[in-house]
Write a structure and sequence with these properties.
Largest sheet: 5 strands, antiparallel
Helix content: 55-70%
Strand order of the largest sheet: 2-1-5-4-3
Number of helices: 4
Strand content: 15-25%
Oligomer: single chain
Shape: elongated
Distance between the termini: 25 Å
Structural class: alpha+beta
Length: 177
């Protein structure tokens, strides 16, 4: 009789542990992903403010070669891809790829939104890097007029690593409990 009650309690305990672990596996990764993405969007939006201050004189002068050099020199050490895009979609500065190989970015979803004067972010596949990236596009306005879009993007491998590590930990804890 005591063994039967012990087995019932053990089985009940195991059911509770497995259900709790399943709930953690279902709800924690999206919550963590959302938090991570929101943090990165804020970080990149603030970075764009710093970039605006540095590039404004060159944009006013329409000195695109010097702007490209400045972006390459100052920001190439960041793990952030930076693109400066004119309102017609032409990329005039880029930290990841040669400008000669760049196509118009006019129809990129985050650029279209920024051209309407709104800050935009999107996760999508990059035809340039061949990976999913988080994009943040910020309208660059001088004297009340939209001059360009500052688009920043980051790879999502850090997020993928965090989520994979979280899933593995939850599974290991479930097994050892």
């Amino acid at each position: 009789m005591i063994k039967l009650n012990s087995l019932k309690y053990l089985f009940g305990y195991l059911v509770v542990v497995v259900l709790f672990s399943a709930l953690c596996l279902i709800y924690l990764p999206p919550l963590l992903q959302s938090h991570y993405i929101n943090g990165k969007v804020n970080e990149l939006t603030h970075l764009s403010s710093s970039i605006e201050k540095v590039i404004e004189p060159l944009v006013r002068e329409e000195n695109w070669p010097e702007l490209e050099n400045l972006i390459q020199d100052m920001f190439s050490q960041l793990e952030t891809r930076i693109s400066i895009i004119l309102t017609d979609g032409k990329v005039i500065a880029e930290t990841y790829k040669d400008l000669a190989d760049m196509e118009s970015h006019f129809h990129r979803p985050e650029v279209r939104t920024a051209l309407r004067g709104e800050v935009a972010h999107r996760i999508r596949y990059s035809s340039t890097t061949k990976e999913d990236m988080l994009y943040v596009a910020v309208p660059f306005i001088i004297d009340g007029q939209l001059k360009a879009v500052i688009r920043l993007s980051v790879f999502l491998d850090e997020l993928d690593y965090i989520l994979k590590h979280l899933r593995n930990r939850i599974i290991l804890i479930t097994i050892f409990i």
